[in-house]
Amino acid sequence: MSFMVINRRRRFFGGAASPSDPYAAYAANGVTPDTFADFGGASELIVLNGTAVAHDTAFTFARTGNAGEFDSDGAFSVVAVRRANHIYSGSSWLPRQLIEPAAATNSIPNSRDFNSWASSSLSATAQDQVGIDGVSNTAWTLTDNGGTGENCYESITVSNDGATHTVAGFVKKTVGATVFPALRVDLLNGTALEAELHINTNTGAVAFDSGKNDGANANVEDCEDFWRVSFTVTNNSSGNTELRVRVMAAICSTIGTRNTSLTGSSVWDQIDCFLNTSVVSSPIPTAGTPVQRNAETYALTDKTGFITGTDTGLSGAFKGLVTGSGILMDIRVDVNNRIALTLDSGGTVTLTVVSGGSTTTATTANNVTVGVNVEVNCAWYVDADGNFIGVSLAGGSADTTAFTDAIPDLSTADVDFDQGPIVNIELVRFWGSSIGTAGIEDADGWARA
């Protein structure tokens, strides 16, 4: 397929994109971006200055070692290179580009082998179910026949400090179940902490047990046939040096209220424990020893049609899922010359422009609730001719700030996406001009037709 080459390096504040423009669907207030990457369509589309190119022509991805991800069929696999990842929308798997800037280690030695876990009166374990990888007999049915809160567990040594740890696990969905399981963490040997998260496997609703509620940040991800549940627990510097992860087969009929007299079973797969962090990584399978997934770097290295080094206007837009706060995008030569887009801890988005050491910022008035897999749809512009910068976040109006500096020469800088909280990128767009307030307010509402 051939594509029309369209040069749009001009100031333009309205009107409709040309009907012959093959990329008009990506326009903001009538202006088609010079460069964009769409990871969420039926197939990946990367365009530089109006011309479709291969992914590796525009972007550089790097990671040493393997990592886990879900493919387009929703099956989990471990791969050496990163593809467009997929997330489950509730009805189908949708592609996204997955970025994990920080390394992570699963400290559970046997993440998919519950026969290797210690048993606390658990009646039965049977590897007899289709797992998250789509393979028969890789997930486990855990059965509580004795009505004593039966479970299996793994113990991990942790430091006696105030660190936060994260646990996550996959439990199979059910229809019509009346008895529900739990994922639990105990911190032991000092003043004990107990966090027991009950899961309604019919609906995905979760709640900590009213008496064992030392956890926080409970979250549920819809993963086709499974729910992936996660939460954090923070140690209390009281002497706790053992972290025990428990899988409770059947512990409640109403989430939030445990009942150890219940009997029943539940199906589990892949348990992760990430120490000294509140960030939930992608699943990291282990088989006898903890495993680390190494950090990833990801950058737009070809800025054709976007940054020239003599720019008087630049604009961009980001749509994707994030977990936690941090930098969404960074175009940086050094600390004195950069443009950065940051998700703050309160869920607002800040545009920072540093020109020759002079800093100007604009921050959205509205915010998102920071958490796991939270969608951020935002846009920004820098206008050296019009003397303003602006940033907007879907659901609110743009915030603008006077800008009296020149745009720094960023022609030698990559556009980095590897320093912050990004989980999945759906769409990034860049214009080599200012699209103004109307443009970014249109851009932050972008939705797939």
Architecture overview:
This protein has 449 residues and is mainly beta. The protein folds into 2 domains: 24-63 and 297-443, Sandwich (Jelly Rolls); 104-293, Sandwich (Jelly Rolls). Helix content is 3%, strand content 47%. The protein has helices at 55-58, 436-443; strands spanning 35-38, 45-48, 51-53, 59-62, 67-70, 76-79, 84-88, 93-98, 104-106, 118-120, 124-129, 139-144, 151-157, 164-172, 180-188, 193-199, 206-213, 215-223, 226-234, 242-252, 264-274, 291-293, 297-300, 313-322, 326-334, 337-343, 349-355, 358-363, 374-383, 388-393, 399-402, 415-416, 422-431. The strands form 6 sheets. Strands 1, 2, 3, 7, 8, 24, 29, 30, 31 and 33 form a 10-stranded antiparallel sheet that branches. Strands 4-23-32-25-26-27-28 form a 7-stranded antiparallel sheet. It has a 6-stranded antiparallel sheet with strand order 10-13-20-15-16-17, with no helix packed on it. Strand 29 (374-383) and strand 30 form a beta hairpin. The protein is elongated. It starts with 34 loop residues before the first strand and ends in a 6-residue tail after the last helix. Residues 1-16 have low confidence and may be disordered.
